Amino acid sequence: MTIDFYFIPGSAPCRSIMLLCKILGIELNLKYTDLEAGEHLKPEFLKINYQHCIPTIVDHGFNLWESRAILVYLIDKYAKNDLLYPKDPQKRARVNQQLYFDMGTLYQRFANYYYPVFFENQAALDPAAYQKMEEAVGFLNTSLEGRLYVAGDSLTIADLAMVATISTYDGFKFDFSKYPNVVQWYEMCKKMPGYEVNQQGVDEFVEKFGALLPPK
Predict the structure, then answer these.
(1) Looking at the domain covering 89-212, what would its CATH class be?
(2) Pick from 2-6, 182-186, 210-214: least confident
(3) How much is the pTM?
């Protein structure tokens, strides 16, 4: 099984999908999509995804975007069991809760702090936005109290989404010393199969955008 995967390596949402595919043994036909060159706005891509965003997959004629929707779809279609996305309603609800927390809070607050400098020519980073990042990591630290993983005691797709985000925080030298539960969880996640694909993407993202940061 080979799935067309439109992506950029530095994107945390893209990396979460690549991690899942490593675990499930899904082969991806990697289609690097150069956003700066406008490849996502070309007619052939717009036919696939009218919202012209990545990640996007095409699975034997079925087009899908939004990373967390893709994670769920790949589990539903290709996973041999429900360990990564439990069918039990309460366990699944907890995974969903953490997926939405990552999307709406953890990842979003990273974007709120850094993206105005990276993409909108803002001259300085906003200290108040950094405090919001710290608050988000604090929420994650609290949620991990008494748990090995973000939705319980076994790895789920919520961990894949969140480690892609947290590793991006780490790439930009976020201080995790006040968040021991996050540190313990993060170190465990680094041992998952195929984690190197995530780290390579983080390194590329930092190399590309780190130079744009104002001096401290």
Answers:
(1) mainly alpha
(2) 210-214
(3) 0.96
